[in-house]
Amino acid sequence: MKTIVLSKFQTVRSQITSAKILHIAEILFIVFPLLFLGLLGLVSWHSNADIMEPVRLNPVYALYFILFLSFFFCAFIVKNMKKSLANKQSQDLLKIATLVLILTQLFAMNLICGWLLLWFAKKEYGMDVFRISWKGLKQAPQKWLLLVSGYTLFISLFVCIIRFSL
C-alpha cells in the first residue's frame, strides 16, 4: 500500500513542469493581496469606518498593506519569467530574478510562494542557479526586470526591519 501511494506521488510530481509552478506562484501573488484587501474591508465594515481606516490607525496594517501591494509586482515579474522561460531567453537574468524573488518572499515570510519559487529554481536549474554569467547578463533584453525585482526586495526588507522593530 505504501509503495503504491509513493509511486503515485512520484508520477504526479514528475508531471509538474516549471511553467506550472510559476503559474501557481503568479496566481498566489494576485490572490494574497486581494485577500488582504478583503480583510481590510471586513475590519472596516465591522467598525463602520472607511476601508483605509485600519491602515491609517494601525502601523502593522500599514506595513502589510505596502507589502501586499508589492505582490502585484512579484506577479508581474513571474509572468515575464514564464515568457522568458518559454522563449529560452537570458537564463542568467531569470536566475537572478528567481533568487531575488526567493529572498523577497523569505523577508516577507510568505513561505508558500517562497517554497514554490525554490522548487522552480531546483527543478529548472539545480545547483547551477548560482552560476551566473555576467557577460551574458549585459546582453539580456529585459534588464528592467532586475529593477522591479530589486524594488520588491527593498520593500520586503524595509517591511521586515520595521515589523521586527515594532
UniProtKB/TrEMBL annotation:
Tell me the superkingdom of the source.
Bacteria
Q: Report whether Transmembrane shows up as a keyword of the record.
A: yes
Record field: transmembrane: 21-41, 61-78, 99-121, 144-164
Q: Which UniProt keywords apply?
A: Membrane, Transmembrane, Transmembrane helix
Q: What is this protein called?
A: Uncharacterized protein
Q: Which organism is it from?
A: Listeria newyorkensis
